[in-house]
Amino acid sequence: MDAIDDATFERMLDLAAVAVSDDERESLRRDLGRVLESITAIADAPVDDLPPTYGVSTGTRTRADEPVPSLDRAEALAGAPQSADDHFVMPSAMGRSKDS
Amino acid sequence: MTIAEHIAAVAGGASVRERAEAALDRVGDDPHRAFLSLDRDWILADAEQLDARLAAGESLPLAGAPIAIKDNLCQRGTRTTCGSRLLEDWVAPYDATVVERLRAAGALLFGKTNLDEFAMGSSTENSAFGPTSNPRDPSRVPGGSSGGSAATVAAGHVAASLGSDTGGSVRQPAAYCGVHALKPTYGRVSRRGLVAFASSLDQVGPFGATVADIAQVYDVIAGPDAGDATSADQPAPSAMEVLGAGVAGLRIGVVRSCLEQADAPVAAAVEGAAERLESAGATLVDVGVEHLDLALSAYYLIAPAEAASNLSRFDGARYGLRVEGRDLAETYRATRARFGREVIRRIVLGTYALSEGYADEAYVRASRARTAICRAFDSVFEGVDLLLLPTAPTVAFALGEKTDDPVAMYAADVFTVPASLAGLPASSSPVGEVDGLPVGAQLIGRRFEDTTLVRAMEVLSS
Predict the structure, then answer these.
(1) First to last CA, chain A
(2) Under DSSP, is residue B448 helix (H, G, I), strand (E, B) or coil?
(3) Beta-strand (E) ranges in B230-341?
(4) Beta-bridge partners for A83
């Protein structure tokens, strides 16, 4: 597994949507490099001809596609940082909203 | 005090409340930090309700036995923190299916136990609320991620607890703390209400002071659940009913390569366990399992990939903490910056494993290796009923010893991740000591043959 270069590292932080301080940034990058180096066995493994396994569930059965009682809306909203009018409330995706 | 002894005491006239008080007194000020929540008033109120139900003639198989719950399992009305600042004040609005089933069977839900943040870790040092220490030696880790659940049983507070095992998180702490634990077959126990870490691997499992305690809890929690799409649609055979069945006639494969990898005294203790199984009538054969050398690498790509996806839900919108930013994107980043170091490490690693340009060589390749490991187990189980190997390569290490070295920390899972990847049932049993620290022997069984493990666990405990 290749070490992560600068551009890739920044892109991963962006995709992961985590802010990392300058101090933490270097140690995180160093740790990721060490972890990727430690798992190089996978790169040489003779597995090219095998199908991937994404899950090991067996003997499952889907239920009928019918509504069943679920979590009460008010209870679901109670754990949220902010809600209004039966909805979760978040900051504007396009910058500060007028009423924020 | 075992669950059976508790049931006998209650049948003999003791109240659940007085027994709950005694358990709370045993915890005292919780010197090992096994618990993140332990509300005396709530527990005693619940105990009184259980006394009332018993007095009314209700049949409660667990008769108010106190059982501790890992704090990544939802328990209605209680904080469910996952050991994270992001969920520090989040109160679960419903019961996990396993919690529901314990309540129905008359368990006294006895506090929420400490864990590595979002179950990511092998030492319980990644909890945002401070580490748990090992009751057998408080300078040592209890293992992880279910370290609190293992420690509370090892300390004698309760006879049983629930943990979750993604890559070894019930088996490895059980080994380090000297208690019994069982990771059921994937799909045997509902994951509904277990806060997801890696959904194709996560499985709830019990810790117990004795194998009978494990069996009693397993019988309550195992079985189909329409609330979990990965729950197997078949009844779970009773573990209690196989107690006493012994291991005569079973073929047990000793995984020689793992014994050679472990510290010599650990390997010697596991060899001793093999001899006990043989003395009880099992046939031992040395076996090799192909591709075990790929398991740790595959696990540390697949589990972080699934974690990166699962933990995307913690965005400051729906649960717990929000750190306000200037706009939505900055709010996401600022909120998620409150994850601990290990969680961020795994999210970024998992993001890498799944991202365009890298996924084929990382996540997909690891998933192909997973196929190789599954097939290797299928092959070896054509000739044996169980596998025996160490749970971990060493005994419990010192607090702080590996916190700055993720690679060394991950290596503590080297013997537990293979069964997780294959979805197989696996257990840990205390089988000896090295310098006063417990050694765990791991058994791995065929899919859905969890009770065969229980038979062998009982022999190892005798």
Answers:
(1) 45
(2) coil
(3) 251-255, 283-287
(4) A88
Contact of A26 with chain B, judged by CB distance below 8 Å, is answered with no
Nearest-5° angle of CA B402, CA B405, CA B407?
110
Superfamily of domain B3-242 in CATH is Amidase signature (AS) domain (3.90.1300.10)
Q: Does B238 participate in catalysis according to the annotation?
A: no
pLDDT tens-digit readout, A28-80: 999 999 999 998 889 899 999 999 999 998 888 888 899 988 899 999 999 99
Q: Is A73 within the bounds of a domain?
A: no
A36 interaction partners in chain B (CB closer than 8 Å): 349, 352
Contact assignment for A93 to B327 by CB distance below 8 Å? yes
ipTM of predicted complex: 0.93
Residue A48 is which amino acid?
A: D
Question: What are the structure tokens assigned to B216, written together?
Answer: 């009693």
- Residue A96, in any domain of the structure: no
Q: Residue for token digits 């679960």?
A: B92
Task: Give per-residue pLDDT as tens, B64-111.
Answer: 999 999 999 999 999 999 999 999 999 999 999 999 999 999 999 999
* pLDDT recorded at residue A93: 84
Residue A12 lies in a domain: yes
Q: What is the DSSP annotation of B95-161?
A: --HHHHHHHHTT-EEEEEE--SGGG--SSSTT-TT----BTTBTTB---SSSHHHHHHHHTTS-SEE
- Please report whether residue A84 resides in a domain: no
Helix, strand, or coil (residue A22) = helix
- How many domains would you assign to chain A? 1
Cα atoms in the 13 Å half-sphere on the side-chain side of A30? 8
Residue B1 has pLDDT above 90, yes or no: no
Q: Which residue is listed with tokens 């609005």?
A: B93
Is residue B388 within 8 A of residue B286, CB to CB? The reply is no
Please say whether the beta carbons of B141 and B123 come within 8 A.
yes
**Nearest chain B Cα to A35, which residue?**
B407
What CA dihedral angle connects B147, B153, B156 and B160, to 10 degrees?
150
- Structural domain containing residue A25: 6-44
Distance CA(A27)–CA(A23), nearest Å, equals 7
Residue B298 is nearest to which of A13, A42, A90, comparing CB atoms? A42
Query: B303 with B166: CB under 8 angstroms?
Result: yes
